[in-house]
Amino acid sequence: MLPVEPLTLLAFIPVGLVLNLTPGADMMFCLGQGLKSGRRAAMAANFGIALGGLVHTLLAALGLGTLVTAHPAAFEAIRWVGVGYLLWLAVAALRSSPFAAEAQVSLTSPSRAFWQGLMVNLLNPKVILFILAFLPQFVDPANPILPQFLTLGLVFSFGGLLVNGAAALFVSSTGQRIARSDALAKWLSRISATIFGALALRLALMPRN
Asked: I want to staple 82 with a disulfide (CB 3.0 to 4.6 A). Which of 8, 121, 123, 157 is the partner?
């Protein structure tokens, strides 16, 4: 027997899919990895982000999301660590451009892209607050909460996996064809650095509520 009523699940899936289709930080990060390092790195980052979403779902179900909401210092600490991490990724991408002494394009391995995607998702406190606000609308308090949260989180993460993966695969295949030109390949690194930097700025300027 499913932890979530079938009718509730049928109502949740299209709503979750619409939210997944809305371009956000996760999609942009996957696109940046696809442009810079190709489809394998993009999909690895996509799986890392999906795992991060499940971790956030578990934390929200266990009540840690309420703790982050109640303690602004915890929220700010996580947010600024996330900003710093994204800026570090931007600098790493930019170092492979002609502005660096080596003037070489460095690729991110799939395993590294996976961990980067996971960390980018985990270090965004807005994700756990979004989950805490969104998923309870489809939870029946008369039944065990944790199995319902995990089921809904799994469905939502799977939808994001499909949407972000499709976008990243399209861009990465295009980007890798362009990358056969050395000059254009170096521009891809600049574009990736810009994406990561923009995500850092977005997280830094995003209001808490």
From this structure: 123
